[in-house]
Amino acid sequence: MLRGRRRMESTLDAQSLISISLRKIHSSRTQRGGIKLHKNLLVSYVLRNARQLYLSERYAELYRRQQQHYPDGAPLLAMPACPPPPAPPELPVLPLPADTQDREVRSCAAVRGGAELLEGPVCAAPPELQRAPCRDSSPGFYRAAGSAGPGGGGGGGSSAAPGLLYAAGCDFGTGGVPHCSSRTTVLDLDTHVVTTVENGYLHQDCCSQCPCCCQPVAGLASPPPAPGTKRKYYPGQEEEEEGVEEGEPGGGGVAGGPPFAPCTKRARFEEYSAEHPQDSSNISNLISIFGSGFTGLVSRQQADSEQPLNGQLCGKQALASLGAWTRAIVAF
Amino acid sequence: MAVIWCFSQVKGAVDDDVAEADIISTVEFNHSGELLATGDKGGRVVIFQQEQENKTQSHSRGEYNVYSTFQSHEPEFDYLKSLEIEEKINKIRWLPQKNAAQFLLSTNDKTIKLWKISERDKRPEGYNLKEEDGRYRDPTTVTTLRVPVFRPMDLMVEASPRRIFANAHTYHINSISINSDYETYLSADDLRINLWHLEITDRSFNIVDIKPANMEELTEVITAAEFHPNSCNTFVYSSSKGTIRLCDMRASALCDRHSKLFEEPEDPSNRSFFSEIISSISDVKFSHSGRYMMTRDYLSVKIWDLNMENRPVETYQVHEYLRSKLCSLYENDCIFDKFECCWNGSDSIVMTGSYNNFFRMFDRNTKRDITLEASRENNKPRTVLKPRKVCASGKRKKDEISVDSLDFNKKILHTAWHPKENIIAVATTNNLYIFQDKMN
């Protein structure tokens, strides 16, 4: 179990590996001869491994901070006026061990390959409000309250949850009060509506009762929406809304629901990964994009035909429906 | 090692500035060893021929000299996919000789070509109606009848494409292998293997398809494939996950279900970010006997007995000192290098390349190994090659090279061993070295 400085080093290593890997994927798009499937597959494995470590280190740090702020174990309740909504049934609350340093975060973050998503954001939230960040054997799904997902365990594939995306916009930045500091931005690919979720709850649910939650959080690019508001998403918008689609939007399509990478501008993705290699919240966003094992390779349209096999897609429509990941790797 | 290796020849440009087109991408001896073919990134094939042994020069075997050079593949552009197809020659495989001409298969990422290499050393002269330069004679001047006769001429070696096997691969071709029936061959890309008849170009049979219905579920690709040297129904293919599957074409038309699966369980103590990458198999070669096969992954060479699936019978570490450097090798892309491996004629020694222009040989009987270097420093004929040693850590002894001073741009990916003699061809980036054993 890594401690202290070694822990920091390994987190940095994971972060730098992630950004190196993303850069490789990105540059593979322009190399001669088309994108190499084999190499990109191997890079995706490194990405996944680094992500697992990164997440486990993040959770470890969270617990450490929590212990620092509240050494007597008092709950971290940041929004006393906000009653927690009922936890999604399939996710048990993670019990905090007495001594967080002994906790095997690594096993906790052991996410298998396949279509599992990034585990829900776990930030400095009260233990009883904390969501289970992961599971050993089943994909750690997190669904915003209100989305009636069928049991997501086991199966490995994404389920029929409507096209909701999760970008872990978790912010550690402000030190101080870890109150309402966890944000998840959710993009519904069907309606193109962006919703911001705080601490795992829909912002409008939580902050309607708690005005303190509405302050903009340092480190995040865009101001939080007013409570209860939804924003229409356009492909040209800021990258806060990046995320990974989970499941099949609407009906039809390939069984098993290939998660899509989001509608983002390619250029933004490029500058994103280049400019913020060390920013943990940005890394989280990137991680969420690549949350699934080797996802986003196939768009629905192409699943039927082998046509755009090693090349870039033509057509703005096709481009708009694919995210950076898909465009980075071969479209099959 | 019983064999003492000496420098014999080096082919290729001397200057350090390497043109990308000159990078050697494949090396292959023909079945007799008389011919040695190389392919490069520029799509060219160069064939060297061994001189007839000079009876007076008993201390060395014949030299290899250029026999034929031709442009096998050109760069292409796939307009539909907006994709350039590289002309780089990925593999060359010789057909056994049946008549005066030689035949080889060469492939780039998408297209396989059958080339006929034939000699012309005489030409007809004395046409009745034509001048020697080909112009027709004025018919009124033709008063006698004469029949042309063949007269000797300077040897000309011609290469002509006899078959073009195209449009059968969606992904990048990594292997071709000729069946022991000498009528069919297989070609493998990342996800599929096709079976061809050498005479038929407009269709092929798909015999392996590992493409998942949902590409999200892709976890491995095919990295190499080869027919068994004796059993025409058997072939193997290796995967990026470090497994080898043996398939029997008699079992079913589509060999998606393997007959045997060769896999060694991973050592959990060696687990790292890069475990998947270094376990990916870059080459698989049957022994000449057909009893064993050899696989190469990033750090090791493994010998498998076809009768034992659960682990290799022998494992040789090529450059274990790189295990602690995997992160840097990932950053500079070296971890993706695909090293090949080869057997000697009697299957007693195996050889593979490494970095710093080093190559390694492992004697299966004595369990001894040796590291040699392909370098222009030793380029006087019959200079004995000095064994090299890499110092992994700690005090560096004299003549040892430390890991940090290895040149990772100088890599030996392609090596070939003469089928009968102790002659080896070792390709550095753009040079081909030929070494022989010391003959007394």
Automatic annotation (TrEMBL), chain B:
The keyword NADP does not apply. Keywords: Repeat, WD repeat. InterPro entries: PP2A_PR55, PP2A_PR55_CS, WD40/YVTN_repeat-like_dom_sf, WD40_repeat_dom_sf, WD40_rpt. It comes from the Eukaryota. The keyword Coiled coil does not apply. One of its GO terms (cellular component) is protein phosphatase type 2A complex. GO terms for molecular function: protein phosphatase regulator activity. Belongs to the phosphatase 2A regulatory subunit B family. This is Serine/threonine-protein phosphatase 2A 55 kDa regulatory subunit B. It comes from Melopsittacus undulatus (Budgerigar). The gene is LOC101880355.
